[in-house]
Design a protein that fits this description.
Layout: E1 2-5, H1 11-19, H2 24-28, E2 34-37, H3 46-49, H4 56-79, H5 97-101
Parallel strand pairs: 1-2
Length: 103
Amino acid sequence: VVIVTNSRRPWVSDCVERFVPELAEVFDGPMAPRVVYARECVKTPRSSVEKTPPSQEEHIEEMTNAKYAAMKQEAERFYSQHPGQSWKNIFSCGDMRYEHFAV
């Protein structure tokens, strides 16, 4: 299991601690899900280089690209362990359109 998020580190652990502390040992244990912060998987986004904030369209594009890059990286990492396998069993759940576009 891999959790891919566009949030900033340490959002996942903060949420577990605050909302479901009873799951803390699952996230700290040997079978813990891998947490990937998508923004860390792309080159420096335009919004952090330029002084003007990105437009809504540019922001959506940045978030989609980050999520896509992270999901692709993780799928390739997993399926490279199993030669000849096709990509399947990818589940995306999110409240923003770009999270669905990235799949």
